[in-house]
Design brief:
Layout lengths: L6 E5 L4 H17 L2 E8 L1 H5 L9 H10 L7 E7 L2 H7 L9 E5 L13 H9 L4 E4 L4
Length: 138
């Protein structure tokens, strides 16, 4: 079976692990001519300005993707409402309908002893499209 890879979605929260996943996804897209959707989930605290952490800068994400060799016209920043796993899973449906999801091993809420974060696990449990969990950069 041959599958055409047209569009990839990658989760991005500004963490080192999400940046590693973004680099991997952007390099893949550059090598096969696919489009990349960089997905940031906007929660209620961030939306209301009550979040302690600053939201990730879209410019940084687009810069990382460009450094990995992806043309600017092949990448798109998406800020979607809701929990990260839900936001990523919504990209597998219309109007986005991505062919592949990419996430880092863990995001900003790192807990000692946890190998795979809750977002990665939540996406893996419910996705209908292939998923790549990019290991932590060492």
């Amino acid at each position: 079976m041959t599958t055409q890879l047209g569009t990839v979605a990658v989760g991005y929260d500004g963490s080192a692990d999400s940046e590693t996943a973004l680099r991997w996804a952007a390099a893949l897209c550059a090598s096969v001519g696919a489009r990349l959707k960089i997905v940031h989930a906007v929660g209620l605290l961030e939306e209301s300005g009550l979040s302690v952490a600053a939201p990730p800068a879209p410019e940084r994400a687009l810069e990382v993707a460009a450094e990995a060799g992806l043309e600017p016209g092949r990448m798109e920043w998406l800020a979607l409402d809701g929990p990260p796993a839900d936001a990523l899973l919504r990209t597998t449906e219309a109007p986005h309908a991505v062919d592949l999801l990419v996430v880092g091993t863990r995001g900003t809420a790192k807990h000692a002893g946890v190998i795979v974060g809750s977002t990665s696990l939540g996406v893996a449990e419910r996705t209908a499209v292939p998923l790549v969990i990019v290991p932590t950069a060492r």
